[in-house]
Amino acid sequence: ASLPKREADLIARRDHVLGSSYRLQYRRPVHFVRGEGMWLYDPDGRATLDFYNNVPSLGHCHPEVTAAMAEQAGRLSANTRYLEPRLVDYAERLIATFPSALDRVVFTCTGSESNDLALRIARLVSGADGVIVSSYAYHGTSAAAAAVSPNLGDAVKLSPSVRMVNLPGPSGIDEANAAAFFEAEVRAAIRDLDRRGIGVAALLIDSIFSSDGVWLDPPGFIAGAVEAVREAGGLFIADEVQPGFGRTGSHMWGFERHDVAPDLATLGKPMGNGYPIGAVVGRRAHMDRFGATARYSNTFAGNTVGIATADAVLTILQRDGIMENALAMGERLASGLDVLAGQSDAIRAVRHAGLFFGIDIGRDAMSPGERRAMALDLVNLLRDDGVLISTCGANEDTLKVRPPLVCEAAHVDRFLEALATGLQRLSA
Ligand code: PMP
C-alpha cells in the first residue's frame, strides 16, 4: 500500500532539513502522536502494539513517572554542583541494587556517554589503551563509543587499539565448550594487544550480547574471559544499557546472570523510562583514581528533573513486581514460540532471558541473504499488522523482540498471533 499523503509529505520535508545519516524504520514508516502502556496511537487513533521498545520499560508515558518529571520541571531544574537531597537519595537507592563492591555512581545523559566515561576511567586506571569487544557489538555514538562498536561498520577498523572477539554461539560452539572458547578468544586478543605495546584497558561487553543476536547462554560463560582481562591489568565494563533494570526478569543487572561483578557498569535507556538519563556505577578505587586526576562535568547529567524521573522509575520497578512479570511473560512468550517453531521451519532457534528475545529466522537451505530478507519481510508484515519489532545479529536475520516489561498475557498472545500470521503469509 502506498503511503498516505500526510506521511509522504512529512518524509519529503524531513529529507530537506535532516542530515542524511537518519534512517526511518519500516518500509511504511510509523507516525504516532500518543503512547500509553504497551500501545502507540497514530493520528487517526489506530493502536499499534509496541514489542520493540526497551526504553519505556514501565510502559509508554507511565502516569506516575510523567507526574514526577513534570512536577520537578515546574519547580526547579538545576545541576549536580548544588546540594540536592534527592540526588543523594537516588544514588544510595541505585547503588543498593548492585553488589557491595560497586559503591560509587556518576551520572550521564545517555548510554553512549556512560560508555565514553567508562572507557576514560578504564584507560586512566589501567594505563593501557586496548579495548576488547564482541564482533558485532554496539556501544554508542560518541567518537570513543563508536570506535568500539563493530556494528557501525568502519569506525572500529580505524581504531588500532580495539580487538573484536567471536562469541561461542554464533561460532557454532556448544554450551559445554562456550566458556573455554570465549576465554581463549579474549586471551588471544590480550596477547596481540600486549605484543603491540597497546595493553588492555577493558573488556567491554553487553552480557546478553543483544546486537550480536542475543547470545546469552550458558549463564557464566564470560567468567574466565573476565578473569583473564583482570590478570592482564584491564577492567571489566558491563554495558547494562540493554539487560539492565530488570529486562532479564531474573536479575536487576545482566552481569548477575553470569555471576561476575564488573569493575564498571554502564546504564542508560530504561533508567528514565524515556527521559535521557544514564550512569556509570563502579568500584570506589577506580572512581577515586579517576577523580584524583581527571575532571568530569556534564551540564545536564544528574539534573534535578532527570533524578526525579529516574527515582520514580526505580520506585515503580521495585514496588510493582515488574521483574516478576517480565519473568512470567517471558516464559509465556517462550512457550508460545516453541509451539510456533514446531509448526514452522522458518524459525530456526529462539533465545531469551526474561523479556529479551532473539528469534533466528530462515530455513536451513536458505542463503544468509535470503534469511536476512525473510526476517526483514516479517518485521514489515508485523508492522502492517500493528505490532512493532526489529532485527539484530551480524546477518540481521534474528528478530529482536523486547516489549516493555509491563506487558500482559493478552499482549503476548497478540504478538504470537501476528508472528504466526506473518510466517503463514511468507510461506504461502
Ligand atoms: N550500549 C548498548 C548495548 C546499546 O544498545 C546502546 C543503544 N542502542 C548504547 C550503548 C548507546 O545508548 P544511547 O543511544 O543512549 O547513547
From TrEMBL:
PROSITE patterns the record matches: AA_TRANSFER_CLASS_3
One of the record's GO molecular function terms: transaminase activity
UniProt keyword annotation of Transferase present: yes
Cofactor(s) the protein needs: pyridoxal 5'-phosphate
UniProt keyword list: Aminotransferase, Pyridoxal phosphate, Transferase
Stretches that traverse the bilayer: none
InterPro entries (alphabetical): Aminotrans_3, Aminotrans_3_PPA_site, PyrdxlP-dep_Trfase, PyrdxlP-dep_Trfase_major, PyrdxlP-dep_Trfase_small
Family: Belongs to the class-III pyridoxal-phosphate-dependent aminotransferase family.
Protein name from the UniProt record: 4-aminobutyrate aminotransferase
